[in-house]
Design brief:
Number of domains: 2
CATH topology of the largest domain: Growth Hormone, Chain: A
Structural class: mainly alpha
Order of helices and strands: HHHHHHHHHHHHHHHHH
CATH architecture of the largest domain: Up-down Bundle
Largest sheet: none
Radius of gyration: 22 Å
Strand content: under 5%
Number of strands: 0
Helix content: over 70%
Length: 446
């Protein structure tokens, strides 16, 4: 789990900043969109091939090895795209190839999440799984700190460290305990693959409201995942990758408190608080931009535990509780399809277009003006860790450029705050379900 999420976290967290620093920010939306596309198609791959023909550990090993090839090819392709001197009115073929390589990697990576869970559940009891899964979050944190330590937050070398780790993990996967294909010999269930039975759950009004609002709220959520690293760099944070790990640290903390909050708050209040936390986060980013109010920005990042755990984790548990046992896996796949698939895919496209139209030009000017500020010699490990909170002094930067860029960032973050706020109000007014996740009685769709 640690290495698995290290592979993803090493490049995904600061991808937007990396593309912007290499004059490729126009493709940020398409590049980030590779992840939700992987989430959409992963269930089909798992259902048709992985779950029926090959041991899980071998499939996972091959996927990591193939994904490593895609990752290792991205830096040279991106450099060629940045240096392309063709007709500006014509599409840059290298940029398109770079996005296709990212898509190829995510199509390999996303199925490994379910495969890793399958291996763990086969050889461990269910109560031990959370202790294993938490190492995934730790892996993401370690990846962010490592990238920050090496000063690679905006460097294409992030793909080399991710690719090398994927290669190592691919080889290691073959040594994992043998986990036979769970559906070997079974006919392909196309009703299950297409989530036909799970769609019937929309007959339950509360679930329909939950699913629609969850899908829609993932559109503004994509703003955070794709452009926070750019924003932190513009505000002056020296290593955005390290700074963003504060969010994952809070995620671990709130994960431990979820059972307590379930008993006190219930499903509706938990999900609503999660949505409102996203609104607060974006407002903190927006109004913290104008004067570079560091505590507001750090607080916005630290809200990630509430934003993610209260919304996503509660949503998964609610879905599992109300779905009949026979279609629970379908229901979970459907939730992933609508949220981390369709919702985030649209969100990355919308966020990418908004960044290009609102922030890109002024942010590029600010980055040029900031060149050389905060450059440092080699640091000790302790000094590198301190970079998580380190912010450059921007007093030497042209005040007009800085003011203009920060006002643009303010405008950029207001959009997702409004979107998330409207969806939260709709959810508050329309969602009514008395179900208790902590109860042991079985519930079924109506």
């Amino acid at each position: 789990m640690l290495l698995q999420f290290f592979v993803w976290g090493a490049w995904f967290a600061t991808l937007g900043q990396c593309l912007g620093a290499n004059d490729l920010s126009d493709f940020a939306g398409g590049a980030y969109g590779a992840a939700p596309l992987g989430a959409i198609f992963a269930p089909l791959f798992l259902g048709i091939i992985a779950d029926r023909f090959f041991p899980s550990q071998k499939v996972m090993g091959f996927l990591f090895l193939i994904g490593a090839v895609f990752l290792l090819l991205i830096p040279s392709t991106a450099e060629a795209a940045a240096e392309w001197t063709g007709d500006p009115d014509e599409p840059n073929p290298k940029e398109n190839l770079m996005v296709w390589l990212m898509l190829g990697n995510m199509l390999c990576y996303m199925p490994t999440l379910a495969l890793g869970n399958s291996i763990a559940f086969t050889h461990l009891d269910s109560m031990s799984f959370p202790k294993i899964r938490v190492w995934g979050t730790i892996g993401w944190i370690v990846a962010g700190l490592a990238v920050g330590f090496m000063g690679w937050s905006s460097n294409l070398d992030i793909f080399y460290i991710a690719g090398a780790t994927s290669l190592i993990l691919g080889i290691y996967s073959f040594s994992l305990p043998n986990t036979p294909a769970p559906l070997k010999g079974s006919p392909v269930d196309f009703r299950g693959l297409l989530m036909v039975d799970a769609i019937s759950m929309f007959k339950r009004p509360a679930f329909a409201v939950f699913m629609i609002c969850s899908c829609l709220v993932c559109i503004p959520l994509a703003y955070y995942y794709s452009f926070t690293s750019n924003y932190l760099s513009s505000v002056g944070f020296t290593q955005a990758a390290s700074t963003m790990t504060i969010g994952q640290m809070s995620e671990i903390f709130f994960m431990l408190l979820i059972p307590f909050f379930f008993r006190k708050l219930g499903v509706k209040n938990m999900i609503l608080i999660g949505m409102l936390a996203w609104v607060l986060r974006y407002l903190l980013f927006a109004f913290g931009a104008e004067e570079q109010v560091i505590w507001m920005i750090l607080f916005g990042i630290a809200l990630h535990g509430i934003c993610y755990d209260f919304f996503f984790v509660t949503g998964f548990m609610y879905t599992d509780k109300i779905a009949p046992k026979s279609i629970r896996s379908q229901a979970q796949s459907m939730l992933v399809f609508f949220t981390q698939g369709i919702g985030l895919y649209i969100g990355y496209k919308v966020a990418g277009d908004k960044f290009s139209s609102v922030v890109k030009e002024s942010d590029a000017a600010l980055n040029t003006a900031m060149a050389g500020i905060g450059s440092q010699d080699e640091l000790s490990t302790g000094e590198q860790l301190a970079q998580m909170f380190s912010v450059n002094d921007l007093s030497e930067v042209d005040s007009n450029i800085l003011s203009t860029t920060m006002s643009k960032w303010n405008e950029f973050w207001i959009y997702p705050a409004i979107m998330a706020g409207v969806i939260a109000v709709i959810f508050f007014a329309a969602f009514w379900d008395k179900i208790s996740i902590t109860s042991d009685d079985e519930n079924s769709s109506e």
